[in-house]
Fold:
Amino acid sequence: MRDCVVLIEHGLIECRYGRAIAVNLEKGPIKAHREGALIELKVHPGSSRRAVEEIPNGRISVYVHAHPEKGKANQETLKVLSEALGVPVSHLEIARGQKTRDKTVLAKGISAVEVRTRLLKE
Structure:
């Protein structure tokens, strides 16, 4: 059977191989989008490490070495996310927040449920 993602009023239903899994992601940092998933995150440029973490308030933080000069921190943010998600950098784009630390990244071709599973490894 085909994979499908259907938004409903209070959450997300993902159908895989005829089984429906209901997950409420609408209030968290990862949301479904018609092209994939939107990921709200805070970038920490100039960090001594490269990592993706969920912080206690439920937000996602991305730590990068690059400083916010000429888009270098944005490029490294996408690279760190692509490594964590296991997708090519070309499948990621900054939808909002090009010049701020708070960003929304569009992950194309991957569901919100899959993004949460791969990023947060609960």
